[in-house]
Amino acid sequence: MKGKSVVKRKFPVRLTEAAEKVLRENNGEAPPSETKKRCRSCRAWVKVVAQLKSDGLEVETCEHVMEDLEFLLSGDPPLVYVVWGGRDGYSALPISVAHFMGWRFASDEPRKIHLLGTVDDVAIGLCLEGEEELPTAASPSQDPHAEQPGEQKGLPETLVRFLQGRLRVARLDPRGGCDVFRPLE
Question: What is the dihedral of CA 167, 112, 134, 104, to 10 degrees?
Fold first, then answer.
């Protein structure tokens, strides 16, 4: 951002359980989110860096792009979610800032959501405590509560219960917005 008036500002935020977990696992700083935006004043491309820290959301960019972000963060302190999709890695940001930075998906749960796929304008994910749950999903016969072979046709009841408790859905915005995964109802 040479030649530009660079400003750094910290914004108050509220944390979801997922954002708190990210801070705990990363020594009080979530992975930074970086993008480039065209400054509406000078029309140059400028770098924008947003990073959740234990004392708030820190943003660094040119003064004109900062004005846009200040508008997005005005009012009550926004809730911070874990965000991913549309780029590599993950971060923790308020939904409005996540959309501004180019992220597609968010979660307020402190567990990892594996994107299974999309159908029309809906994304479907599987929310897991950890990788150790994958064998149960892949092979319910390893589950001690599973039915005996031949007892039931179709999906085993244990697999159905497993999936019911872990499936999550999010609406996809055709304009590329960021949405929060919610439990399937």
Answer: 60
Residue bearing tokens 């708190």: 20
Residue with tokens 């994910």: 125
pTM of the model: 0.81
Strands (E), the chain: 6-11, 14-15, 33-38, 45-53, 56-62, 79-84, 90-94, 105-107, 112-119, 122-128, 167-171, 179-180, 182-183
Residue in the structure block whose two tokens are 């914004």: 11
Among 115, 131, 80, smallest CA distance to 101 is for 80
The pLDDT tens digits for 19-49 are: 999 999 999 999 999 999 999 888 899 999 9
**129-136 — which CB contacts under 8 Å span 24+ positions?**
133/166, 136/162
pLDDT at position 177 is: 81
